[in-house]
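User: Continuing from earlier, I have the next pair ready.

Assistant: Great, send them over.

User: Here they are, in order.

Assistant: Folding the first of the pair now:
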Amino acid sequence: MSKKVFLAVDLGAGSGRVMTAKTDFKKLWLEEVHRFDNPGYDIPGGAFWDTLALYGHIVEGIRRAVEIHGERVVSISIDTWGCDYGLLDGNKRLLGLQQQYRDPRHGGMPEQMFAMMPESEIYARTGIGTNFFNTSLHLLAERLAESEALSVASQLLFTPDLLGFWLTGNAAVERTIASTSQLFDPHADDWAWEVIDALGLPRRIFGKVVPSGTVLGLLRPEVAKQIGGDAIPVVAGASHDTAAAVAGIPMEGDERLWLSSGTWSIMGIELDAPVTTPEAFEARFCNELGVGGTVRFLKNISGLWLIQECKRQWAGEGDDLDYNALAELAEEAEPFTAFIDPDAPEFAAPGDMPNKIAEFCRRTSQSVPESKGRILRVATESLALKYRHVFERACSMAGRRFSRLHAGGGGIQNQLLAQATADALGVEVLAGPVEATSCGNVLTQMIATGHIPDLAAGRQIIRDSFDFETYQPCNPDAWNAAWERFGKIIEPM
């Protein structure tokens, strides 16, 4: 049987890439054909994405893949970060530049929103807690500023929806990305109209929502000409990158506790229905929708951002260490000297992360790390202990103790963190695949195009295609003592 090829476009908040996935539907082989930066820009008026440049890179990546694989390319799908959107006018033209979720316009919006509808009621209707990046806050900011774009807009499309529309000419909002907005009702599987109305947002911009795995259509003739091939189907797959990553982690049975590890860490449970109880609201867990009707009951946690920002600071000071060198420094450093709360507000913004870590330790009357290795060790162990904090709450709300954590994403390459996670939680960590997001993207395409029956079949392909590392918990007494100390400095959830 001739191998087929699927194209996974994976866009992150700092870079993007186009991956080819060659498969005989028993195994999967991934290859990167085009990588590009996605820096974003701060200019007068706010923080923006260069979405046209991203579109150009996507077309170039498709062109390269078609040049290599030709008619074996079956389909294409795009996944991106959540929440960000573009507004289209009545002629389907983008209204202005696309603003970033970090744009400061969200300032003061939670208070404004809660005056219109209590946060607990918003959560009960959407299953999403309030964070600075929520689409709800940014749209409310546009309405209160009497945005001209919002006043004339006819349709809202999230980033992957917008790019899919430009590729095919067909516009639709995909379900997993809609669920990140705090404007979608996972119980009704429709827009949360009561919330939309309470915020005074125009109903007309909230269009048709389609399930993950919907075929949007073929590449427009103009795009097919650019890539030098035939028109290829574009699938609205798991358009939210975390939905794709969770789909690509081969869980089975009742052990559906997962960790997507990268710049951000996200821990959650794959469920069949949303949980919007007062306990879930108080714990700040969110309900985002997944592939095959699943729910990702999750909490965001700061991730390798801490280490990445330390690396960037030291590189700017003339000591540009690679990640292997940083890992060695952390391994050699003394354990359990101090802890930070990785989700404390001061760590959210870029800028001199080593000093911020030291200042947190000083402020909380702990030993202040001075060497690079000590700083990295503090960050790593604190992150593992924050994972335990979320793990304990997840087990409480699930009414059971999980015995295994499935971890995927680039962060699992940090072996010190992976082992620390097993140690802190006291459970086995099964790590893999590194390319969980691309795997989930491709599995959704395979289902959409009729090549495999369901997610379970796709996850079996992943199990058979990649190597996995297993980390067993060690040194429980030392980690339990560290957990007690950590609990005294952590910020409330």
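And the other member of the pair:
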Amino acid sequence: MQQIQQGAPVDVFISAGKPQMDQLQNEGLNCLIPSRQDILGNDLVLVVPANETNIKDCQDLFKPELVKWLLER
């Protein structure tokens, strides 16, 4: 983002944050804006071993016995 602000040529800019894109747009750096689009998203995924029976969803990670087990690892 800083390189673009300083005039560096750009073909593609992918930002993890919408505020950075908004800032470039607000600064009048329109070279990116005509093709601006969301291409990725953010999802939290919980992966556990197939034989794990104590963890069914993310809320289970807050069970005191599991927190203690995780901290001991």
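Worth noting for the second one:
The mean pLDDT is 80. Residues 28 and 42 are 28 Å apart (CA to CA).
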